[in-house]
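Amino Acid Chain and Its Fold in Token Form
===========================================
What this section holds: a protein sequence and its matching fold, both as plain text.
Structure line: whole-number tokens from a learned vocabulary of local backbone shapes, matched to residues.
Purpose: to set a sequence beside its fold so the mapping can be learned.
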Amino acid sequence: MDILQTIKAISNETRFNILEWLKHPEEHFCPQEHMPATCDFKGGICVGSISAKTGLAQSVVSGYLVKLQKAGLLESRRSGQWTYYRRNEEGIDRFIEQLKKEL
């Protein structure tokens, strides 16, 4: 994990907010009705729902989500035409531990 890349990823207020919202997605997003019942990606929220909450274009939000995923803070799953994102709790824990060691 590149700690500086991760810090840069969360240094943007909207990206930081997305991580916060995804901590408790049921409080911040409508149910993901288009997610198939067979999909085992609990807590996953589609890009469109995240885009609507931020008020930003879906293309901008997609870029933000990819940046957070590359930093190890999110994971994604594609189901049909939808891509869902959720927090990568293991990645977040690794980042926190590494940050503690380095600072």
